[in-house]
C-alpha cells in the first residue's frame, strides 16, 4: 500500500478540531437512480466539531476533476451548542447528523431545501461518552460517563434506558454487527454486554491496569444497498469481499496497545503493540485496514541539552494484526481524531486546528504514482508544473496531485488580495460572517471584520473601519493592518502589477467611444492633490496608454457635480498614497447623509475606480415595497488581452436622477 499527505495550502480552522465524521453524497441528478457505490462515494460531506461549539459541514470530492460542478454552497457552520463539540456522527440511511457537546447537549440536524435545522434536542445535563447509530440507522445508542445508557429511535422515541452502577466511568459504547447487542467499555478495562432490550448479559474484565479508550468492529458503519454492482470495482468492493471475513472486535487501551478479538469473550486475542501514545484508531469501511494514529515515544537525543523530539505517526495494520505501512505526518502535536472517506481512498486527520488529508492507495503503488508524488513534493506549487519538460498528458496527471479534496476555496495567505478582489472560477457561494472587532477612538470609528466560514471556523478576509460620524462611510482594507507594510500586500505587489499591466486600473484604458465621450473618470492613485506623488506609468507599449497618461493630471477620477439643494454629494475622501499602501486600503464606501445611496470606489492600484453602487428606495408612507438595486461591474485581472473590459455608466453614482440607467450586472431586491 501507499499513503501520502495531500499537497496544497494548510487547512486550518480558528479553533481545535475535536471530532470528525464523513458520509457520501448522492448528486441531485442521480437521486432518482439506483444507488451505485462508485458514484456515491466520489463526493461527500465532512462534519467537524470544534472547541468553539460550532459544527462544520464541508463538501469534499475525490475525483480530481475540476470541471465537475460542485454544490452551490460548499460549507455550513451550524451553531447551537454552548460548549465544545466532542462528537459528530452521520446517519447515512436517514441523512441526519448527531452532535454532542461537553455539557451533555445532543442535537440531531437535518437538511431541508439547502438549509440545516435542528430536528431533535436532548440535554440530560451529564457528559456524553459516546453516541452510535445502529447499522440500519433506525436506532441510536447513547452512553453517559455517569453510567446511564439509553437506546432510542431515529425519530426521538425512547426504547429503553438503564443505570449501570460502576466505580469507574463508561468511555465508549457500540452495537454488534447484527444490532442485537450493545457493548460498553469502562475506564478500568471492563466490557459490559447487554441485549437490544436492555437486559444484562455479561460483565468481563479485559485488562486490569489499562482502561478502554474505544471499541469498534471492522465492519461498515452503515449498509448501503448497491443495485448496480457492475459499475463498481468488483474485486475490491463486492459484498462477498467486504463480508467474507468474520468481524473483529477492536479494543484500544490507554497504554497504546490494541486487542483484536473474535468476540468479547475471546480468550486468545491478537495484541498489537503500537509503541504510540494518545492513540486513535478506525477501520476502513472495507474492513481490511486499520489506521492507528498517535505520537511516537520520545527519543532521547545524543545531546542532553536538546529536548526530546516527537512526531505524529499513522500506522496501518491488516486483520491479522501485522504492520503494513507507516506514514510520517507534519504534525508535532497529538492527533485528536481521524476518519476514513471516499471509499477508503482518503483519510482525514485532525491535529489541533489543522486538518490533514491523506491519500491512500490500498494496492501496491505503481511507478507512475510514486513519480507523481515525488514530482509534486519537489515542485511544491502547482504553477511550477508547467515549467517542467514533460508531455501534456503527464503534466495533467501530476497536476491531479494538487487538486484539493476539501473543496471550499480557502484563501492562500500569500495571495489574499487576489482572492478578495477577483471572482472564483466556480459558481459556488461564499458565506461569510461579520463581527465588530474593535472600537478604538484613536484609530477612527469602529472596525468590522468579514470572516469566511470554513471547516466550522472563521477565516478573516476583509476589514472595514467607519470614517465618518454623520454618514455610513467606510474604508475597506486587509485584515492585517498593524501599520507595517507587508511585502505581499504593499508596494512590491503594486509595482509588480503596474509593471506587468502598464496601467493602474481598468478605467485608465480607452475602452469605448461611449465611455470616453462621457469623459470617463481617469486619475492617478494619488488623486489630484499636489502634495501626493503620482504613479508614473511606462507608456512605451501602447500609444493609447500614452494619451491616457497625459490626461491624468487634468482629468478627475469622479465627475464633479454641483450638489443639488438638500442633496449632499457622494464625495470621495482622499487618502495619501503612503496610507493606502501602508494601511492596505482596498476600497472606500461613501454614501449620502440619509444612507440611501452608496458608492464603492477602488483605492488599490490594481482595482478599477468604479467598483459598484447600491441604491435603496422607500416610499413616503411605505405604500410600496422597499427596493434595493445593486450595480456591480465584473472585475478581472488587468491584462492586455482584455481590450473590452465590462464597465457600467458612472451615472449610477448620481444623486439627482431617480431612474438610473442599467449598464452591466444589476440585481434588484424587493
TrEMBL record:
Where primarily located? cytoplasm
> Start and end of every IFT121/TULP4 N-terminal domain?
41-360
Question: What's the short name of a Pfam family annotated to this entry?
Answer: Beta-prop_WDR35_TULP_N
* TM annotation in the entry: none
State the WD repeat positions.
78-109
Mind naming one GO cellular-component term on file for this protein? cytoplasm
Q: Which domain of life is it from?
A: Eukaryota
Q: Which InterPro entries match?
A: Beta-prop_IFT121_TULP_N, Tubby-like_C, Tumour_necrosis_fac-like_dom, WD40/YVTN_repeat-like_dom_sf, WD40_repeat_dom_sf, WD40_rpt
SMART domains, per database record: WD40
Tell me the segments the record calls region Disordered. 519-571
Q: Which UniProt keywords apply?
A: Cytoplasm, Repeat, WD repeat
Q: Where in the cell is it found?
A: Cytoplasm
What's the protein here called? IFT121/TULP4 N-terminal domain-containing protein
Organism the protein comes from? Pagothenia borchgrevinki (Bald rockcod)
For this protein's source organism, the top of the classification is: Eukaryota, Metazoa, Chordata, Craniata, Vertebrata
Amino acid at each position: 500500500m501507499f499513503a501520502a499527505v495531500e499537497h496544497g495550502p494548510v487547512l486550518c480552522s480558528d479553533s481545535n478540531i475535536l471530532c470528525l465524521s464523513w458520509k457520501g453524497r448522492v448528486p441531485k441528478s442521480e437521486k432518482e437512480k439506483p444507488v451505485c457505490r462508485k458514484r456515491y462515494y466520489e463526493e461527500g460531506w465532512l462534519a467537524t466539531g470544534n472547541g468553539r461549539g460550532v459544527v462544520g459541514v464541508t463538501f469534499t470530492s475525490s475525483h480530481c476533476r475540476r470541471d465537475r460542478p460542485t454544490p452551490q454552497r460548499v460549507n455550513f457552520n451550524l451553531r447551537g451548542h454552548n460548549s465544545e463539540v466532542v462528537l459528530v456522527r452521520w446517519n447515512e440511511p436517514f441523512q441526519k447528523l448527531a452532535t454532542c457537546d461537553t455539557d451533555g447537549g445532543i442535537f440531531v440536524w437535518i437538511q431541508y431545501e439547502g438549509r440545516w435545522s435542528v430536528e431533535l434536542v436532548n440535554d440530560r445535563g451529564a457528559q456524553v461518552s459516546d453516541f452510535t447509530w445502529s447499522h440500519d440507522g433506525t436506532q441510536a445508542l447513547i452512553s453517559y460517563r455517569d453510567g446511564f445508557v439509553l437506546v432510542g429511535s431515529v425519530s426521538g422515541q425512547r426504547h429503553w434506558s438503564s443505570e449501570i452502577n460502576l466505580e469507574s466511568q463508561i468511555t465508549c459504547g457500540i452495537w454488534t454487527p447484527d444490532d442485537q447487542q450493545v457493548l460498553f467499555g469502562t475506564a478500568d478495562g471492563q466490557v459490559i454486554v447487554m441485549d437490544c432490550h436492555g437486559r444484562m448479559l455479561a460483565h468481563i474484565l479485559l485488562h486490569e491496569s489499562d482502561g478502554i479508550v474505544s471499541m469498534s468492529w471492522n465492519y461498515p458503519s452503515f449498509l448501503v444497498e448497491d443495485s448496480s454492482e457492475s459499475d463498481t470495482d468488483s474485486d475490491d468492493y463486492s459484498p462477498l469481499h467486504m463480508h467474507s471475513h468474520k468481524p473483529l472486535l477492536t479494543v484500544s487501551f490507554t497504554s497504546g496497545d490494541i486487542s483484536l478479538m473474535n468476540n468479547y469473550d475471546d480468550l486468545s486475542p491478537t495484541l498489537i503493540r503500537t509503541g504510540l501514545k494518545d492513540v486513535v484508531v478506525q477501520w476502513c469501511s472495507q474492513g481490511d485496514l486499520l489506521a492507528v494514529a498517535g505520537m511516537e515515544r520520545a527519543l532521547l537525543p545524543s545531546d542532553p541539552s536538546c529536548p526530546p523530539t516527537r512526531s505524529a505517526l499513522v500506522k496501518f495494520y491488516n486483520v491479522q494484526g501485522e504492520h503494513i505501512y507507516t506514514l510520517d505526518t507534519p504534525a508535532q502535536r497529538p492527533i485528536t481524531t481521524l476518519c476514513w472517506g471516499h471509499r477508503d481512498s482518503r483519510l482525514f486527520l485532525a491535529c489541533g486546528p489543522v486538518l490533514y488529508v491523506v491519500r491512500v492507495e490500498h494496492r501496491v503503488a505503481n511507478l507512475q504514482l510514486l513519480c507523481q508524488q515525488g514530482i509534486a513534493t519537489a515542485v511544491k506549487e502547482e504553477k511550477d508544473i508547467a515549467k517542467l519538460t514533460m508531455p501534456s498528458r503527464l503534466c495533467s496527471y501530476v497536476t491531479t496531485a494538487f487538486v484539493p479534496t476539501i473543496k471550499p476555496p480557502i484563501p492562500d495567505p500569500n495571495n489574499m488580495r487576489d482572492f478578495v478582489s477577483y471572482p472564483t472560477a466556480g459558481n459556488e457561494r461564499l458565506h461569510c460572517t461579520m463581527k465588530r472587532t474593535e472600537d478604538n477612538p484613536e484609530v477612527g470609528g469602529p472596525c468590522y471584520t468579514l470572516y469566511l466560514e470554513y471547516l466550522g471556523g472563521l477565516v478573516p478576509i476583509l476589514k472595514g473601519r467607519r470614517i465618518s460620524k454623520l454618514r455610513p462611510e467606510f474604508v475597506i482594507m486587509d485584515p492585517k493592518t498593524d501599520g507595517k507594510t507587508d511585502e505581499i500586500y504593499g508596494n512590491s505587489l503594486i509595482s509588480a502589477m503596474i509593471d506587468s499591466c502598464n496601467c493602474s486600473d481598468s478605467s485608465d484604458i480607452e475602452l469605448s467611444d461611449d465611455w470616453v465621450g462621457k469623459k470617463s473618470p481617469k486619475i492617478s492613485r494619488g488623486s489630484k492633490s499636489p502634495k501626493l506623488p503620482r504613479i508614473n506609468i511606462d507608456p512605451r507599449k501602447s500609444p493609447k496608454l500614452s494619451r491616457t497618461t497625459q490626461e491624468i493630471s487634468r482629468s478627475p477620477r469622479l465627475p464633479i457635480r454641483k450638489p443639488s439643494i438638500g442633496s449632499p454629494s457622494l464625495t470621495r475622501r482622499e487618502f495619501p498614497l503612503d496610507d493606502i499602501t501602508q494601511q492596505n486600503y482596498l476600497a472606500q464606501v461613501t454614501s449620502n447623509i440619509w444612507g440611501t445611496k452608496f458608492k464603492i470606489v477602488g483605492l488599490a492600484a490594481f482595482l478599477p475606480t468604479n467598483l459598484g453602487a447600491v441604491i435603496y428606495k422607500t416610499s413616503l408612507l411605505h405604500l410600496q415595497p422597499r427596493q434595493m438595486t445593486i450595480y456591480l461591474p465584473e472585475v478581472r485581472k488587468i491584462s492586455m488581452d482584455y481590450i473590452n473590459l465590462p464597465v457600467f455608466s458612472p451615472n449610477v453614482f448620481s444623486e439627482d436622477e431617480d431612474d438610473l440607467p442599467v449598464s452591466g450586472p444589476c440585481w434588484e431586491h424587493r
